[in-house]
Amino acid sequence: MKFKVIADSCCDTTDKIRQDLELELVPLKILLAQDIEYLDSLDLDVSAMIDEMNQSASVKTACPSIEDYVEYMHRYDNLFIVTIAHFLSGSYNAAIAARELVLEEFPDKTIHVFDSLNASAGELNIVLFINSLISKGLSFEEIIVETNTYINSLVTLFVLEDLSNMIKNGRMSRITERVASILNIYPVLGKRDTNEIRMMAKVRGLSNAFDRMTESVSRWTEELPAESIIVTLSHCDAAVRAATIKENILMSCSAAKDVIIVPTSGVSSVYANRGGIVVSFQTKVY
After folding, report:
1. Which range of residues forms the domain containing residue 204?
2. Alpha-carbon gap, residue 9 to 41, rounded angstroms
3. What beta strand segments (E) does 33-152 contain?
4. Residue 217's domain is classified under what CATH number?
5. Are residues 201 and 94 in the same domain?
6. Residue-wise pLDDT tens digits, 94-137
7. Are 118 and 245 in contact (CB under 8 A)?
8. Rounded to the nearest 10 degrees, how much is the dihedral formed by the CA atoms of 130, 132, 135, 139?
9. Are residue 76 and residue 103 in the same domain, yes or no?
10. What's the total number of domains in the chain?
């Protein structure tokens, strides 16, 4: 049985990853003031979009429609779909609704939708894991069980150089941003053991915040076997910073077999903004 994996466009990738995995992405939309709309497709000029976004009074994102997902589901018989967390977007609910419609028409198809409980580098981590299970020859049902366990073992952390879009999207108060700016305090944000993004630490100085993020990766994986996990790292127009953080993780975290660096997609860039870094990693090995 041949399996196909697709994800929504909040899954950060590279051309090589998409080619190697034959991965397809269902695009979300980015909505700015003055009715400016971007489709988060592979030909999106992310840098130009960020420039326009930072001049806009408002920034919103919109999930793929049910019809968008139905179109992809019609193409494949044995399909796994990975979406951004349900508490960040309606993408998961749209995919579930599409699955019900398609299975009514084609009951012999096998389709499963994974709520990644993540975004950005976290989604990529899950996609890579599913493909590793496929390569091992696991059954459809085994892949579902193993992947759900894996999703629950993931931690995703991020540090943003520019918090303005978190304010525009209502993810952070202007008072918090003002205080952080005055005191040179940067939050280490993330998701661990809960279905919400919360502040993991408050650190004075941007460089120290990235160091704290790296220390957290090392501390939360210190009991894992050597070279047993893959860390995914997304960056928004910060390739040099990402390379440095990769090196620091590999030096300090014995459990990390590799750190895969990818640029943020359009939707991920809405939240990360220039200079932002996202890391995702497994804290348990079953």
Report:
1. 154-282
2. 7
3. 36-39, 59-62, 78-83, 110-115
4. 3.30.1180.10
5. no
6. 999 999 999 999 999 999 999 999 999 999 999 999 999 999 99
7. no
8. -40
9. yes
10. 2
